[in-house]
Specification:
Elements lengths: L1 H20 L32 H4 L12 E3 L7 E4 L6 E4 L4 E4 L7 E4 L2 E11 L13 E8 L5 E10 L4 H9 L7 E2 L22 E7 L7 E8 L3 E3 L1 H10 L14 E4 L2
Parallel strand pairs: 1-13, 8-11, 8-12
Antiparallel strand pairs: 2-5, 3-4, 3-9, 4-6, 5-6, 6-7, 7-8, 10-11, 10-13
The structure holds zinc ion.
The site of zinc ion has 4 residues, from strand 6.
């Protein structure tokens, strides 16, 4: 009996230290997205039970099915301008997506009315996350802008197959194949504006709605701006994109009465 108690105590002791040795956020996978809300964070000594609860209980989650929404293009909306300039970014395979991080002194951003929000990173989903009548497009590009106060604005661009896209190829060619690795020293000069559709970047046509991050922790308070025009990549480029990550798209979430506003 005594030895059993001792072994229980030592098991507790070791599990306590094993638990404390791990401090990264809990892992998640796209094939378990219906239960992201239930993931437990066992890395804390006092376990934080459901760090991704918002993925399940949130009422303004992203992405959505655009065909299911009420559209309104009669309200005056802010002018939207993508003021991106050239950077020497870091190409990052984050384990879920190809992601390009802008450098710390990057001055490019999204101007929404009078406010400018810095571009922090952009990344790719295959297939698209936003759908129309349940139909995906081949891929979707998300430009993530974060203000000093933590507010997030995402500019989303749908990707069709068609003409080859040289700027897209630069990303494919510089992102590490190994998950978790980054390429910070490529020296590649890259202007994210090269990934925008050929329209007036100072006055973009868009749809907008309130939503969330589409990956855990699914935080809300994200304003989405979906461009009405698409960009193209070749079928060979789509195949190369899939060789990094495939099916990294969250399923469409309930609109819960949200309307989509448009300046189109
Ligand atoms: Zn995204």
């Amino acid at each position: 009996m005594r030895s059993k108690i001792l072994s229980n105590v030592s098991a507790l002791f070791f599990s306590f230290y094993a638990i404390n040795a791990v401090s990264s956020p809990p892992h998640w996978h796209y094939d378990e997205q219906s239960t992201w809300w239930a993931i437990e964070d066992t890395s804390q000594s006092i376990p934080l039970l459901y760090p991704y609860a918002e993925c399940g209980v949130g009422k303004r989650q992203s992405p959505v099915d655009l065909a299911a929404a009420k559209f309104n293009n009669t309200k005056p909306l802010n002018q939207l301008a993508a003021l991106y300039d050239t950077d020497t970014p870091t190409f990052y395979n984050n384990g879920h997506s190809i992601q390009v991080n802008t450098s710390l002194d990057y001055s490019g951003g999204l101007r929404i009315g009078e406010e400018s929000i810095p571009l922090i990173q952009f990344h790719l989903h295959e297939p698209s996350e936003h759908v129309i009548n349940g139909q995906h497009l081949p891929a979707e590009l998300h430009f993530v802008h974060i203000n000093e106060d933590g507010r997030i604005a995402v500019l989303a661009v749908a990707i069709e197959t068609g003409n080859e896209n040289p700027a897209f190829q630069t990303i494919l060619d510089n992102t590490p194949v190994q998950e978790g690795e980054q390429n910070a020293d490529s020296g590649v000069q890259f202007n994210p504006a090269a990934l925008l559709p050929p329209q007036d970047h100072d006055n973009l046509e868009y749809f907008t709605l309130a939503g969330s991050l589409t990956t855990p922790p699914c935080s809300e308070g994200v304003q989405w701006y979906l461009l009405s025009e698409v960009i193209t990549i070749s079928t060979a480029q789509l195949a190369q994109l899939k060789s990094f990550h495939t099916n990294n798209a969250r399923v469409a979430q309930d609109l819960n009465g949200r309307a989509i506003l448009s300046n189109k």
